[in-house]
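Q: Predict the assembly, please.
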Amino acid sequence: MDCNQVLVSKVKKVIIVFTLLIAFLSIKIDTFAQADSAVVPVDSAVAKTAEAVSGEHGAVEHGKEKFEPTKVIMEHIADSHMWHFWGHTSMPLPVILYTANGLEFFSSGHFHHGEEDYKGAHNTYRLVEDHIKVVGADGNVDEVASKTVLDFSITKNVAAMFVAIFLILVVFISVAGSYRKRIGKAPKGLQSFLEPIIVFVRDDIAKPNIGHKYAKFMPYLLTIFFFIWFNNLLGLVPIFPGGANVTGNIALTFVMALGTMIIVNVNGNKYYWKHIFLPDVPFWLWPLMVVVEVVGIISKPFALMVRLFANITAGHIIVLSLISLIFIFETLAIAPVSVAFVLFMDVLELLVAFLQAFIFTLLTALFIGMAVEEHH
Amino acid sequence: MVGSIAAIGAGLAVIGAGIGIGQVGGKAMEGIARQPEAASKIQTAMIIAAALIEGAALFGVVVALLGLNG
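A: Predicted assembly structure:
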């Protein structure tokens, strides 16, 4: 009796598996069939364009612009002078330029998406691939003059950073307020959500790596941890307040790594400096070791900088490439596959967002720990 | 042509990372199997090592990306 039941259930399982397999295969064949048929018009359009060009027709007529994934992806991860919402809707951002004659303020809306020049107080400016260039008297871009103009604009990344800073301030001022009000009581609300994370930074990052002098460095560690984490998470949000590639901008990670380098070297004790300039090796190795150690001062923050930048940029590129698949195949049938992969990558990025904040903070704590360690 | 060579570079960088993360993951599994009570500590150390390897691989990918643009 039991044997029979097991057999029946096994047969049922096999039937289900086969049905699913056949369903899956037929979906796949459908997709490819549609993809093939979708490719044909593109080919003919390209052929038409080629004909038009070779036939020396005045007006080149082709239905659509060819989709270039690399260009589109680079546009999305790069910084911009306007915050793109959807379609042709975007928010102009303020432009601040430092020229030899003085400062200039105007809105990037004056460029009309790079189609028009703007005549400022000192120069005429043009937007070329999201860089502001000076236009000379002859109507062309004056490269020499453009180099003298420094761009301090509130770009998309800066605006997104302000959003993150505002969020961090709101969250932490309210949490700090509730700590002040509720001394000695159990945490409540937002406070009880953040307390484990703060305690995690203290007990798992600062204490084991820095030792008993950890308290002095907690403000810096907590700041970089939450700043990176909030910016990473906001970068994952595809709609308005998020979507900027803030932590995937090498300038921002450079400044953060510079902060770590300064804190490590300012707090370095005599043992740290002795380890660099008078290492415990035979004296004939000193010329080699000192060079290696001095390069190490620079290369450690450099690795921090590139790691954060590359991880976040790579994540954005992968998500955008998967979305681009829909436009490459020019079919909606690929959309479920693409969206499923994007969902998977986004969940993975959620982990990476935390992990990179954690790694940056952990390595900073490690470097500080090496610098303040007492000799033993 | 430059684009395709950059893509090969990115692929090679990922091969290295794959081997590295495979080693880390495999050894961590062995460690956890031998000492299940230390699983959480091993996991943390594993994630840190994996992130460091990933960073090295991403250096390669970034250079490939720069090659693509330049």
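The mean pLDDT of chain B is 84. The domain at 2-69 of chain B is CATH 1.20.20.10 (F1FO ATP Synthase).
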